[in-house]
Amino acid sequence: MSEPTRILLEEHEIPTHWYNIAADLSTPPAPPLGPDGKPIDPSAMAAIFPEPILEQEMSRERWIAIPEAVRETYAIWRPSPLMRAVRLERRLGTPAKIFFKYEGVSPAGSHKPNSAVPQAYYNRQVGIKRLTTETGAGQWGSSIAFAGQMLGLEVRVYMVRVSYQQKPQRRVLMETWGAEVHASPSPLTETGRRILATEPDHPGSLGIAISEAVEEAASRPDTNYTLGSVLNHVLLHQSLIGLEAKKQFEKIGLYPDVIFGPCGGGSSFGGIAFPFLADKFAGERRAAGLRCVAVEPESCPSLTKGTYAYDYGDASGFTPLMRMYTLGHDFVPPGIHAGGLRYHGASPLVSQLVHEGQVEALAVPQRATFEAGIQFARAEGIIPAPESCHAIRAVIDEALRCKETGEPKVLLFNLTGHGHFDMSAYERYLRGELEDYTLPDELLAEALRTLPSVG
Ligand SMILES: *Cc1c(COP(=O)(O)O)cnc(C)c1O
């Protein structure tokens, strides 16, 4: 073998610090606002988040030390491998080199434990005993269940009732790690009881599940709430992905020309792209031509068709207002299979960089993503999560353009998770039952009418 296909790091090479891109932005990040349009005081959120997390949320320090106990837990699966998709390159006949950072090696099967572990750690540090969260398909819920078990916290997950009934596997995964999982709306909270009183068979929604998890955390001093994407501290934790990838590229003397990542809330995209963007901001020559592309579903196109404005982070309007690309907090995306990409907004940090032209955004249709995912699975053996298939679609298209132009570009994408719990989506694709869904403009306009008028 002349060139390496699997670039590994040693355990001691797990980064010692996370990278905070807020330190390097040309304009300071827009502050979160309260419903009155005034910047919120972080202490307003102290009932549901621990102090160290709130500090990270607001921090403009470039490097933030990773606690030793967190690095030790990361060592269960990190550093994750950087792999070269040589078989896919050959099948495509491209001169491009295709690399991927494989985050599916974590116990929960995705990048999400990268943030679940430090969130559990900081909560335990301030004496919190229990964590709550909401989950739709179950990826964040299972990550926090795993992290809670590793760090000795109880976890209660409010799982959207339809998913609870239709997707038992991730529920059992959470229960296996010791978490309590409840179908939402549940009789355990005011919010849940109020809904069940009028509609006992309510199917639930992510908005309702968030409200239940937040209500419980706010009403119990021993309990806090956790969120798996969107917020600055989550992107900070995910910077691990890009920091490791940079070391891995240094080992083989290469540097990516284009980075692709799927983008839902934006945490894994920020995680892989920001440490490379740091080189560009620092004026490093190797990064001068770097392009970073966030790939989203055509059916939930917040970055490509949304408006850059202040909006609520959740459907019920409980969260502070954040400046981001949004389809409107009332927007209900169609039931596509990439559950992790069905979010009406996007991380404020990713949004700002798209707005400033530092990051590109691209929307792809559902069927083309599964086609790409299956092409990848048949070439490389690994079955990607439907979310990751979005980045694979984009990378394959770029590799085919390289074939036309003869450019031997170095391409990197984030393989954010494996698809072992998503076989029913693959089954539907293989049977020809999956559809593309492009959003009608009227629907977009309608959802945006509910944008709060602040900021
Ligand atoms: C949750 C998830 C995503 C999307 O979330 P981001 O915060 O945008 O990273 C992507 N891929 C997988 C496998 C996920 O579980």
From TrEMBL:
Alphabetical GO CC annotations of the entry are:
cytoplasm
* A UniProt-annotated Pfam family: PALP
Query: Per UniProt, which keywords does this protein have?
Result: Amino-acid biosynthesis, Aromatic amino acid biosynthesis, Lyase, Pyridoxal phosphate, Tryptophan biosynthesis
Family affiliation: Belongs to the TrpB family.
Describe the protein's quaternary organization and the partners it interacts with.
Tetramer of two alpha and two beta chains.
| Source species | Tepidiphilus thermophilus
Q: Which reaction is the catalytic activity of this chain?
A: (1S,2R)-1-C-(indol-3-yl)glycerol 3-phosphate + L-serine = D-glyceraldehyde 3-phosphate + L-tryptophan + H2O
Enzyme kind, highest EC tier: lyase
Source taxon at top rank: Bacteria
- Report whether tRNA-binding shows up as a keyword of the record: no
This chain's protein is named Tryptophan synthase beta chain
E.C. designation(s) = 4.2.1.20
Instruction: Look up the record and name the cofactor or cofactors this protein needs.
Output: pyridoxal 5'-phosphate
Write down which residues bear the modification named N6-(pyridoxal phosphate)lysine: 112
Start and end of every Tryptophan synthase beta chain-like PALP domain? 78-417
Task: Say what the protein does.
Answer: The beta subunit is responsible for the synthesis of L-tryptophan from indole and L-serine.
Pathway given for this chain reads: Amino-acid biosynthesis; L-tryptophan biosynthesis; L-tryptophan from chorismate: step 5/5
The answer, when asked if Secreted is one of the entry's keywords, is no
Name the SUPFAM superfamilies for this protein: Tryptophan synthase beta subunit-like PLP-dependent enzymes (SSF53686)
- Name the HAMAP family on file: Trp_synth_beta (MF_00133)
Single GO term (MF): tryptophan synthase activity
